[in-house]
Amino acid sequence: MADDGDIKVHEATYHRVLGLLQCGGAVIFVLVLLLIYFALAPVSK
User: Fold this and answer.
1) Whole-structure pTM value
2) What is the 3-state secondary structure (H, E, C) of 1-45?
């Protein structure tokens, strides 16, 4: 059976990975919005 300390380390890693995925998802979402905005923005003369 896994030690209690091992479980805590794995839980901490799990939560860190979830946090990175959430931050990465937010950054990609903002980049896609910027890409769409600049792709659809009219060109000034």
Assistant:
1) 0.69
2) CCCHHHHHHHHHHHHHHHHHHHHHHHHHHHHHHHHHHHHHCCCCC
